[in-house]
Design goal:
By secondary structure, this protein is of the alpha+beta class. The protein has one domain: VC0802-like (2-Layer Sandwich), CATH 3.30.2130.10. It is 16% helix and 39% strand. It is built from two helices and eight strands; from the N terminus they run βββββαββαβ. It has helices spanning 80-90, 113-122, and strands spanning 7-11, 15-21, 36-40, 44-50, 60-69, 95-99, 104-109, 126-133. Strands 1, 2, 3, 4, 5, 6, 7 and 8 form an eight-stranded mixed β-sheet that branches. A hairpin with a 4-residue loop joins β6 (95-99) and β7 (104-109).
């Protein structure tokens, strides 16, 4: 992925990242979110969705913003996430990544969004701030 410049769009809504026990049924409120991801493993149930739908008693980290990489991406491509996460790690920005068949999404804390934009732009990636898309 060396020298590949990616185009990212910042999704409008604030995101929450929740953790539940592995046996917990998926809560109905998740399906009201225009953007959500549900991942069940042997150890946990993780839910990423619009934070305004998440009940206050959930084990949740709130205040994340989502950057969507323009896709579709080639599943055989290598280094896509590394081209974003390595510079962000150097800048001290924590990320939470999600992947779908077509593209990848990076969540960064709202408080780190400006640094993330500056860092990624400095690496030659295009971060579209004016056209908040997605959800």
């Amino acid at each position: 992925m060396k020298n590949t410049r990616l185009h990212l769009t910042i999704l409008e809504e604030s995101i929450g990242i929740c953790r539940f026990d592995a046996q917990t049924p998926v809560p109905e409120w998740v399906y009201r979110s225009p953007f959500y991801s549900v991942t069940r493993t042997f150890d946990e149930l993780s839910i990423v969705c619009s934070e305004n739908l998440i009940p206050t008693d959930c084990n949740c980290h709130r205040g994340w913003k989502c950057l969507q990489i323009a896709g579709p991406l080639n599943l055989a491509a290598t280094g896509i996430l590394a081209s974003l996460t390595i510079p962000l790690a150097r800048a001290g920005v924590s990320v939470f990544a999600l992947s779908t068949y077509d593209t990848d999404y990076l969540m960064v804390r709202q408080k780190d969004l400006k640094v993330a934009i500056e860092t990624l732009s400095g690496e030659g990636h295009k971060v579209d701030e004016s056209e908040l898309g997605g959800i």
